[in-house]
Amino acid sequence: MTFTHLPERSRFLSLSIVLFAAAAAFFLMASPVHAATDTWVATSSGNWSSASNWSLGAAPTASDTALFSTSSTQNALIDTGITIGGLEITSGYTGTIAQGSGNAIAIGTSTASFGLSQAGGVFAGSTSTDALTVNGPLSLTGGSFTSTAGTLSLSGDFTNAGGSFNSASGTFQFAATSTITGSTTFANVELGNYNNNLTLTIATGTVLTVRGTTTFATAYTAVSFQGGGE
Question: Which one of 35, 102, 166, 201 is most buried, by most CB atoms within 10 A?
Fold first, then answer.
């Protein structure tokens, strides 16, 4: 009897091992991808695309946060179109990050949406009509930020709590529901995108000024304003 049941048990054990391995593989595949931090370490002013200028030995990818800190205060030229998970500029960074002409920037993806955070240094958007897309929050607490002369599209909260914000001659697009904190002057504003309506919550004490035009993405875009005032 014992020998009769061994093959069946062996098949059961084999099947169990296979199912366990398959389940483990599934959970590993389903686990979220955690963004790595790729720090700017250039020894002199250099190009974003140069692998040696980054701590990971390669320019940041769509799952990475690009970090500018005291590790290197050298200037960086974004010399190619980039898609990264996030951009963090700390108060210790004193250099300039410039968006080169002809190079679109996309910050934030489905797996990494740190957004853009600036506490120091200078961010200089393109003087051409190059896109700057932030899929996540944009927070300015220090330093100097100049937007692109094209369109800065934001899908997240906007905080202007320090430093200086210059919208240049471009358009600031609130592409998704957002909370706006900090009085700010914009050149032009576009509300919504071609896919969704949105709610803009304006924090108490926040005054928004538009020097140029305010437009809706389409005739069917619905915008709800909340909050504001003193």
Answer: 35
112 pLDDT band (50/70/90 cuts)? low
Contacts of 181 (CB under 8 A, 6+ apart): 157, 158, 159, 160, 161, 203, 206
What's the chain's length in residues? 230
- Residues 67 and 74: their CA atoms lie apart, in Å, by 13
5: its two tokens: 């049941």
Dihedral (CA of 105, 110, 112, 117) sign: positive
* Distance (Å, whole) CA 22 – CA 37: 31
Bridge partners, 214 (sequence order): 189
192 φ/ψ sector (left φ>0, alpha ψ -120 to 50, else beta):
left
Task: Give the Cα separation of 175 and 151 in Å (integer).
Answer: 11
What's the CA gap between 8 and 30, in Å, rounded? 33
Q: Residue 159: phi, psi to the nearest 5? A: -125, 120
Token pair belonging to 113: 């949406």
**Residue 194 parent element (H or E):** none
Backbone angles phi, psi at 18, to 5 degrees: -60, -45
